[in-house]
Amino acid sequence: MNQPTGAGVAFEELSSRRPKLQIVFVHRDSAVVERSVQELHRVGFSVELHLVPDVQHIKSHPRWQSFDVAVCEFPSNPSDQDQLLKTVATVPKDVPLILLGDNIKKETAAALLLHGVSDCVDVDSISHLPVVVRRTLSEKSLRHERDRAEKEL
């Protein structure tokens, strides 16, 4: 039986030890979801994908507490955007929310960040998603460390 050697062994060992990224998607366009997952795979993430029909279903999902991050479609319709802003407040803060949208204005992105969204990524720049996910996970980890340290005091 041929065993991989050298760098192949190191890569296989690394990928087998890498925990899966538990990600929940709220998006109507399956092509965007597929491209997002491909970008995450491209940089080495191992992804376990869950799809839900809308943001409200994130917290009702039986495994919502195990999600590392949520990626949600940013609606183009202004009234749907207002509804999203109201709904964002109900999403558990333990699940960072990243929005994917077309041409999100800087003012709108700033308002979303103030309402609890972790970040916004333009669909045309989907290759930025892995960087945003890494930063978001890092911030989540730092928050958990800070909370743990505060409880120990």
Structure in words:
The protein is an alpha/beta fold. The chain has helices at residues 7-17, 30-42, 56-60, 78-88, 106-114, 129-152, and strands at residues 21-26, 47-51, 69-73, 97-101, 119-122. The chain has a 5-stranded parallel sheet with strand order 2-1-3-4-5, sandwiched between helices. The longest helix has 24 residues, at 129-152. Residues 1-16 have low confidence and may be disordered.
Q: How do you describe this structure in short?
A:
The chain is an alpha/beta fold. It contains six helices and five strands, in the order αβαβαβαβαβα.
Provide tags for this entry:
153 residues; five-stranded parallel β-sheet; alpha/beta; globular
Helix-strand topology string: HEHEHEHEHEH
- In quaternary terms, these chains amount to single chain
- Please tell me what the overall shape is: globular
Q: Considering DSSP H and I runs of 4 or more, what fraction of the residues is helical?
A: 40-55%
Biggest pleated-sheet summary? 5 strands, parallel
Low-confidence stretches: 1-16
- Content of β-strand: 15-25%
Q: How many E strands? A: 5
Structural class: alpha/beta
Calculate the mean pLDDT score and round it. Answer: 83
Distance between the termini: 56 Å
Number of helices: 6
* Strand order in the sheet with the most strands: 2-1-3-4-5
Rg estimate, integer Å: 17 Å
Outline the fold blueprint.
Blueprint: H1 7-17, E1 21-26, H2 30-42, E2 47-51, H3 56-60, E3 69-73, H4 78-88, E4 97-101, H5 106-114, E5 119-122, H6 129-152
